[in-house]
Amino acid sequence: MCGIAGWVDFARDLSGEHRTIDAMTDTLTPRGPDARGVWCAGHAALGHTRTSVIDLTGGVQPMTAEEDGRTIAVITYSGEVYNFRELRNELEQRGHRFRTRSDTEVVLRSYLEWGADCATRLEGMFSFGVWDVRDQSLLLVRDRFGIKPLFYSLRPDGVLFASEPKALLAHPETGTAVDLDGLREVFSTAKQPGQAVFRDQREVRPGHTLTVRPGKVVERRYWALSARPHTEDLDGTVDHVRSLLEDIVLRELVSDVPLCTTLSGGLDSSAVTALAARWQRKVNGERVRSVTTTYVGYSENFRPDDTRDTADAPYAAELARHVDADHTDIVLDTAALTDPEARKAAMTAQDMPTTVGDMDTSFYLMLRAIRQHSTVALTGETADEIFGGFRWVHDDELVRSGTFPWVANEKRQPGCANGQGRGLFDRSFLQKLDMDRYYADNYHQALAEAPHQEGEDEREHLMRSVCYVKLARWLPMLLDRSDRLAMTSGLETRVPFCDHRLVEYVYNTPWAFKTFDGREKSLLRAAVKDLLPPSVLDRRKSPYPVTQDPAYTRALHQELADLLADPNAPVLPLLDRSAADEVLRHPKDVAQDWPSRMNVEMALQFNSWLKHYGVSLEL
Length: 619
Description:
Blueprint: E1 2-9, H1 18-26, E2 35-41, E3 44-50, E4 63-67, E5 70-81, H2 84-93, H3 103-114, E6 124-132, E7 137-142, E8 151-155, E9 158-162, H4 165-169, E10 177-179, H5 180-187, E11 202-203, E12 208-213, E13 216-221, H6 234-252, E14 259-262, H7 267-284, E15 289-295, H8 313-323, E16 326-332, H9 334-337, H10 340-350, H11 358-370, E17 376-378, H12 383-387, H13 396-399, H14 405-410, H15 427-433, H16 435-449, H17 458-487, E18 492-494, H18 500-507, H19 511-514, H20 522-527, H21 534-537, H22 550-564, H23 577-585, H24 594-613, E19 616-618
Parallel strand pairs: 10-19, 14-15, 14-17, 15-16, 17-18
Antiparallel strand pairs: 1-3, 1-9, 2-3, 4-5, 5-6, 6-7, 7-12, 8-9, 8-11, 12-13
Helix pairs in contact: 2-3, 6-7, 7-8, 10-11, 11-17, 16-17, 22-23, 22-24
């Protein structure tokens, strides 16, 4: 996996602009610690940092294609194309010759053969930019679900692009202004497609290409979910899901570097781990490596909260024994979670504060620890979105609330009356944000996009809509978080459940099939029931864990007191001082009240973000 950056200016010769493209590329070093390169000529400058996964010596970038001794195209690419071998064979039959074994060269040659339409032939996760020397055009491409990030900033005579906002901010002609639209993205848990946090930036939308020529920018959608009749019965559907999963996991195990799975002991990650274990034994006789995150004393002292019934570690250990995995528990303590450098790293990895608190820090620490022995990690993400795993999906009041069900669910939580992470912010600031209107507009836009089949009854129509808004507004937020927190340690995370073939198939499967046994994720459970022990198979959905150590809450409160005592803290004008003082007057030792705790964590993160990035707020 890699970091990409580029600058195109049709009014300037960028051949001598190494310093600028170097600065942009250097910000992405954590995404690619194994190699680095830049290419500058004419109106284009491209940069690349590499985490080597396939063809460790041959996939150096930016990669050029030559014809008659001259360069005709240059690519900077991040991702994995899982069908690259099949594409390579087809391209060779069409006369293309390859000098490496990398999927990068396959993507480049696919562009030379099919132009922008090459995107429709690529299966996997990817973002890339191709500078076509022949017609002086730039093509930007992002995968179907936006697994790999791709930001850009249009300039008067061209464009800047990169894997992360920090690379764009390294260009001398960009600034750190953030307006209300950007702040809504900071506080939102429903991502607006294409919207970025910093004012002058945008994201290439999932499933889209962007072509830039002198005086012309063309955005084109090359893929979208579609509604198709489902013709198989329940047994056939279960078998089809199993067949797809086996093929997907096998393809995603291809790697020239050490690989593992992240294992929570839940249905999703356990299914991936069990399938990976079976293939590893069959293909190369090796045990799969699995990794679980927990906290000191967490399993022994676990207390159920509003969304978590059980601790992960015992279930993960049982699954690991069941499939004979080479298993590791990563055990975190409060000192690690409160380490200022770790928390700063989690924030700067995403270039913004987030509303999920210690889940970011612990996730970052887990991924950093995994990178010490593995370069690739398969995860169970996306299964909840496509199979119906979240509890709020099965709450009729929430799915009929007229907004995103998870947003409606947030307001049920203690401390979230103003929305997740917004409890300590000033009322006038919140009125300017007007998140309720933002969510309403975003929700109805998403509903209007949702494809439906003819003849759906009311229940089927409703649940298909809910499935779509999860995929279109919730999932991009999770995928971006996973990529950014992993790649800041140079770790490639793969998401087998995000294969578009599986998503398309399950999206068009009737809701009654997805809940046929009266539980969540019925189809997935049935498809892998022979692979998992009964306790794991029957375990209820449990989200990513949060620490329950009261010392963590006390540490946060002390930080908040220090912030309130600092007259130079940039976040102070945005805070509700009385609400903050109330928190300090009545500290809670019940640390599992994590939604309330997020209010404190968001205020602290927001302050760090304003200082570290020198953000200019335009309210």
